[in-house]
Amino acid sequence: MKVILYDLGSEYEALIESKCDRALAADGKYAPCQGCFGCWTKHPAECFMKDKLRRVCRLIGRADELVIVTKNLYGGYSAAVKNVLDRSIGTSTPFSTYRGRQMHHTLRYGKHDLWKVVVYGEVSETEKDTFRYMAERNAVNDGYERSEVVFLEDMAELEAAL
Questions:
Q1: Strands 2-6 and 92-99: what pairing?
Q2: Which residues 6+ apart lie within 8 Å of 11 measured at CB?
């Protein structure tokens, strides 16, 4: 299943939905993570907050391919996208294991294929390096076999990047 998480306006909704199985708008119409870890322990993969991200762990956890479309924010995800990713911590468990000779949390949903980040807005070379490294580390931590980062020069390139 291909999931696209995006922070673009509603004018891109139809395009994005045509390119995936499930689309998730990081539109800010949800609460930020409270850090209670209930989605890890009390009610696995489900947030106690009753908003549109209540089951985001299950959606992202079952994705074979996760495409994140985000505006550059100093070499990182936009605040809206980061908020959704924070709420998806329940895709793993509180237990640890070794993957690639490094300690990581045990995956609740198993391995995935591609963690892809599509970045728009002004991006310096240093920020590009930061994005590449962050995407690679996020992919490893969340059990993705590979990562990819695409930097858009123009929003007309979005369709091809998805």
A1: unpaired
A2: none
Report pTM. Answer: 0.95
Task: Identify whether the C-beta of residue 67 lies closer than 8 Å to the C-beta of residue 3.
Answer: yes
57 and 91 Cβ atoms separated by less than 8 Å:
yes
Residues 6 or more apart from 24 whose CB is under 8 A from it? 3, 4, 5, 6, 56, 59, 84
**pLDDT over 90, % of the chain:** 86
Calculate the CA 17 to chain-centre distance. 16
* 70 contact partners, CB below 8 Å, separation of at least 6: 6, 7, 26, 77, 78, 81, 117, 118, 119, 120
Distance, in Å, from the CA atom of 77 to the CA atom of 82, rounded to the nearest integer, reads 6
Tens-digit pLDDT profile for residues 56-99: 999 999 999 999 999 999 999 999 999 999 999 999 998 998 88
For residues 162 and 159, give the distance between their C-alpha atoms in angstroms, rounded to a whole number: 5
The domain ranges of the chain are 2-161
d(CA 46, CA 152) in angstroms, rounded, equals: 34
Residues 6+ apart with CB under 8 A from 113: 64, 65, 144, 145, 146
Q: With 90 as the cut, is the pLDDT of residue 122 above it?
A: yes
Backbone angles phi, psi at 135, to 5 degrees: -65, -40
Question: 2-161, which class in CATH?
Answer: alpha beta
